[in-house]
Give the backbone structure.
Amino acid sequence: MNLNAAFWQDKYQSGDTPWDIGYPSPPICNFVTKLSDKDIAILIPGAGKAHEAAFLWQQGFRNIAICDWASAAFEEVQRKIPDMPAENYRIGNFFDLNGQFDLILEQTFFCAIAPAQRADYAAKCFELLKPGGLLAGLLFNKVFEKPGPPFGGDAQTYQSIFSPYFTIHKMIPAEDSISPRNGNELFFVLEKPYVN
Ligand SMILES: C[S@@+](CC[C@H](N)C(=O)[O-])C[C@H]1O[C@@H](n2cnc3c(N)ncnc32)[C@H](O)[C@@H]1O
């Protein structure tokens, strides 16, 4: 299976989006509502219909970049967040992104990329974060029986991917997952150290 932009674009165009929960993920909402500085630069990679971006916008965050290479995903976002300017949309490959962010939010993007690309994901997030910046969000705490996507894993596997780059502050079973994912998600917070 070639997990390229056309694969994902076709999923959105045919309405075959079982990963899309239709609203912002509660563990991510609970995390961002504790952030006091609304000016921080936030990236949501593989944002899809970007429910989390709509939540951030409602909360007063404006310095948000949403990246996805399936432009069809963003049609709905434009209706949901009509005031969000064009420069906040990064339509293209996450691995080609430029910029410097304070926070990268992970919600079912890591599980959508091939496991062989996971080390590149960690390296790219490291590159895109400012020193002291955070990579936070959700990872599946489950190995799926069917071939992915989604591709799952466990805390030990993820720690070995991220620890060469990040300080792992938290990687624990999420307490407030949506019910179909209850018990199957880890909430994590990683920090790019000031000196690596
Ligand atoms: C499983 S979906 C998750 C979408 C959204 N985060 C959600 O939870 O509804 C994975 C998303 O990542 C996007 N994607 C996959 N690989 C990508 C890449 N290399 N660059 C940009 N977007 C990518 C897909 O187009 C898709 O929208």
Notes: The longest strand covers residues 129-140. The chain has one domain: 5-191. The chain has a mean pLDDT of 96. The CA atoms of residues 149 and 168 lie 25 Å apart.
